Amino acid sequence: MFYSLILLLIGLDQISKFAIQKYLLLNQSITIIPGILSLTYICNPGAAFGLFPHQTVFLIIFTLCLFVLAFFFRIKISESPLLFRLGLSLSIGGAAGNLIDRIRMGSVIDFLDLEFWPLKNFPIFNLADSAIVVGVIIIFIYLYLIEN
Q1: Which of 13, 101, 113, 129 is catalytic?
Q2: Domain span at 124
């Protein structure tokens, strides 16, 4: 399941970004659900939600280090509870999707633009960013549960 989910996330992320590049011009926006969601094609030179702008080399090296750690601990990870593996799979799949963009283009394609309060000015993001955030939240929930 660990590797299948990672590959599925990478595929969905890259397909969605390919479609955005094909059908929208850079900085173009189309409304999907008025007042709630638009698709806005931007290139983000930083990490998730615009953090660490123009730190592409650092972000590539950091992501590759995380992959190396996951590889070295793969046996321990495979013995971990499902909740932890799920969170890690989401995070690694999202990180890999964004890594592909960084290597290929030097920036990450973002396109999900929330327009409702309180998220009206929320940074534009992508499926990979969402997977990373949800994965980290799941890992924190797992860590909280084992501590209590």
Answers
A1: 129
A2: 2-147
